[in-house]
Amino acid sequence: MEVNVPGLAAIVIFYIFILATGIWASRKSKEQEKNGGVSKSEVTIVGGRNISVLVGVFTMAATWVGGGFIMATAEAVYTPSKGLIWAMGPPAYAINFLLAGLFFAKPMRSKRYMTMLDPFQHCYGNPFTTALLFPALLSDILWVSCILTALGGTISVIVGLSSTVSIVISAAVSIIYTLMGGLYSVAYTDVLQLSFVFIGLWLCIPFLVVNPVIDLTHTTFLNQSNDRPWLGELKLEDAGKWTDEMLLLSLGGLAYQALHQRILSAASSAQAQVTCFAAAGVVLLAGIPSVVIGVVTAATDWNQTAYGLPPPYERGDAGKILPLALQYLTPLWVSVLGIGSVAAAVMSSVDSVLLSSASMFTQNIYKSTLRKQASEQELQWVIRVSVLLVGLAGTGLAFVGDSVLAYWLLSGDLLFCVVFPQVICVLYCSYANSYGAITGYIAGLLLRLLSGEPLLGIPPVILYPGWKEEGGIMIQSFPFRTLAMLVSLLCIPTGSWLAELGFSQRLLPHSWDLLGIFREKQGVTEEQETQDTYVLHTRL
Q: Distances from the Cα of 383 to the Cαs of 120, 143, 259, 278, 367, in angstroms?
């Protein structure tokens, strides 16, 4: 494929501009360290709790409006078997922000936590907090892979540059400015990137709508004729799957450190709530161009374009429908702006995810468990190394597959099934304890794994009602993710109550309290433990 020189030049200029903004923001973070009287790690992780509402709204919305968001939305609307009703990203993320503002912003920000894992550390201790880091870390790596895959596909289509090269360069730029300035660099580059997404994608819409190869009369809102309905169809047999994915995107985001990091960076609880509510509106507006692109590409006569026949869906290119529309249905300069928008969306999410994982590991594992006496300078280096390692892992996984929509959903699976119930209980279930938390963790993780995952080649052990086989792969239509989440949510208070009952009523010997929770509460002596053990054996 011939390289598009103007497009390549535009991408290079855009990346230089983003990098320069990140460097400028890193200087601002250093000024905050000197003048704000806060530690370096606090400035890096939560911006010294000095991020304004406007910048906060931009960085929160930009984190969710990534390459996976805009490309997967267009893919869902374009795909014949799906349609607008399956483009769940914009409404689901709006719901996610509204719930965050209503129920999570105040309890998190008022206690001045540094990361999402802080309340777990305070309530359950270090071992369980470490266990929670693993699903969060895996989810972040999958998210990085998703958005880098989206960028690689877009640049390869429009610019003609190898997807491998584009992925590596984009990841490198994001890693560099994240290393330099922490949340300040991430937040201020997000302002620029989200602005570019809005301008670039909205500017493409008029050119797409008036293109003569697009006949919108061949699409209808509902299936009232032989023409294709762009609203899509939700069959009864797919209702469980739709519900599962909608709840996954709506609620799973509440377990992301990237969300809580922006809440904790606000100057007050009220400001954090306003930021969440405003971001909900922004994310809805950001999804409209992708929906329009999905609709017009479904009405395109591809035989009249340089792309030719068969159409993208039949070639297996549905995941690249957005860059294909920019390449073949808009003028060159418009397609260049469009690719810049995708690059901006990708980088605005990559940097957030990189800092997210690095913050949790540094604050909740390294500082609290491994090196309690670590200096601020040492913590800064740990954050940088963590950013680099997560970036490399996500970049490497981006070369494995090219299904943006699949990675997008999978990235939130473990957080939804395992971590989300824990977040609810640690904030709102006062009697939850480590035994209940461990029970819920194991139950949610086990149920999710036993349900199978085609993307990872894991066959299902449990076949729920409505399962079917497609191409040798077992497909679950039952909302198995939601079931795993609900079981985990039920097990946490139930397990906590049973443990409390067993030890407080001496139904269980206190020597079995391996975590030392009830021994510390009740001041149990070794003599009492021996007596409890004797009583238990006598009963048995």
A: 21, 19, 18, 30, 11
Sketch the domain layout of the chain as residue ranges: 5-23+41-428
Q: Residue 215's closest CA among 200, 232, 233, 228?
A: 228
CA distances to 232, 260, 285, 311 from 295, rounded to whole Å, are 11, 34, 16, 14
Tokens at 326, concatenated: 């920019």
Alpha carbon 57 to chain centroid, angstroms: 17
Of 144, 198, 177, residue with least CA distance to 16: 177
In whole angstroms, what is the distance from residue 42 CA to residue 33 CA? 9
Relative orientation angle of helices 269-298 and 321-329, to the nearest 10 degrees: 60
Which tokens is 310 given? 């068969």
Question: Under CATH, what is the fold of the domain 5-23+41-428?
Answer: Sodium/glucose cotransporter (1.20.1730)
Dump pLDDT digits (tens) for 265-276: 999 999 999 999
Q: With a cut of 70, say whether residue 517 has pLDDT above it.
A: yes
Strands 468-470 and 473-475: antiparallel
Upstream peptide bond of 312 is cis (omega within 30 degrees of 0) = no
Q: Which band of pLDDT confidence, cut at 50, 70 and 90, is reported for residue 153?
A: low
Indicate the Cα dihedral angle 289, 290, 292, 297, nearest 10°. Answer: 140
* Residue of 270, 257, 363, 272 whose CA lies nearest to 51: 272
The residue to which tokens 């996984």 are assigned? 397
Identify the three-state secondary structure at position 460: coil
Whole-angstrom distance, CA of residue 170 vs CA of residue 533: 61
- pLDDT score of 223: 45
pLDDT of residue 219: 58
3-state secondary structure of 220: strand
Helical H runs in 159-218? 163-209
Task: Return phi, psi of residue 470, to 5°.
Answer: -130, 115
The structure's pTM equals: 0.86
Q: DSSP strand E in 207-341: where?
A: 219-220, 228-229
Distance, CA of 188 to CA of 178 (rounded, Å):
11
